[in-house]
Please model this.
Amino acid sequence: MKDRHYSKDVQANLEAVINHSTVPGKTEEETARMLVQRGEELSDSYLIGYGYYRLATLSYERTANLSAVYELLNKALDALKHEKNMDILANAYILAGVMASYHNSQILAVDYLMRALKYGKKSTNPAWFSGLIMANLGICYHSLHDHDAAVRYILEAIHDMVSFTEMPNYCRNMVADYILCAHWLLDKDGNIEGAEYYAELTEQLREHYDWSALYSLELQLLWIHIYQYKNDKDSILKLADQVLPVIAEMPLIAEIFEDVCSLLTLLINMNEMKRAEKLIRVAEESTKDMTPATTLPLLKIEMSYYEKLGDIEKRNDIAYRYFKASIENEHDSNEATLVGVNARYDQEKVMEENRKLLREAEIDQLTQIPNRYSLNRFSDDAFERAYKNQTFLAVEILDIDEFKYYNDVYGHNKGDECLKTVSDALKSAVNEYDGVYAARYGGDEFVVIYENKSDDEIMGIGRKLQHKIKDKNMFVERDGEKLPLTISQGILNAIPSKNDRVWSYINIADKALYKVKRTRKGELELVHGKQA
Model:
């Protein structure tokens, strides 16, 4: 935010909106509307935009009414278009993407999220915003039943966000990401071990953060999903009996509704019709004010429930409601697209902007080498080639030793020069050797992929990179000692299995990097095969 000198009451109003609280005697909505009014009185576009943005989030949380949310969002974006606060712009476009996805307009959702990514890169915390956006992209792809892409994006989100423990809503976001990842690993290929790992990570958050009944319910629903893959009927029913009373007392928000529907389907398939009946009654009550997009899956399950009971009259009644909801949902989906298009410029400008965003999304703007999003695309093809041909594939993760200290002491400009120096060395390696690809992973971390290289070849290239960096004669003074700036490298070289992806390799390479950083900075560690 710019340096603004507000009166105490305006500043208090603004801080209340930013912190999702209220001014004395007012509701959250009234507090946000007060901020809009103050902004109009002062001709301050920032106050107006932030007020409308908060009103849009409140509208989404309470009704998810498409037209109302987009109307408020458009007012926010119109007010903020000349502002330089990238955080609020990124948040606004994330919300627009969430709304579009919620109404099954996944293409529009991805478009909004790509715009959010543009602003998030220039925000006060690019990695955190990247994580928020990656998680929502995962939701989009999961809705399209692309489980591979969904898992890839949610793992990116976790990597981006996990270290920011002091961020507001850290626990809420990490609970959501861990649980989504666990569910999607099961959906993708029945990965029980992976799902249990992320369930345990969720449990660990309980020990360190404020814990809500919602988090416990989400975790219990996840364990039911895991027990389903384990064919553990007794554990499923024991947990189902625990969650049914909780669900009855808690509003079924959109975040858990899919899991509740999955539980209902499971109970019907297990012929637990009495338990299913209890859950249907609760779900029916909770969906009265929900959108057709949300109610359609429930109605579909109810049809199968009544058909299994042999109650054809009731099934036909539900089928008619399903038909009506389908028409309403189609109208909502069309409206979502129309509202989205009307909120943009002419179509040709939109297409050009998307092309520009795609180019920006593939290249790191500072170092001018591929970024993580380009890495995703390249690595998928590289892993497929290596698996098909049964050839070795290596993934290296490297970072700059003492970079944070260097950046703090000498400033961001020198820090940027340091990053460019490393990226230039990587570009040189890519140009010099066939089958070598490099990308900036984030911060001072870079990833290198080696295709069909022996351990000795990789070690040779890795050491050559080290020498190139040392030859630049960059130093940092610490505790009276002049230290050369170096890189540490962790590498895994193995023939990939069918389900391996860059993330599984990075996990092992990262452990090797950690070992180097802890014991012998400036060196490299290569793991052959998959023994961490």
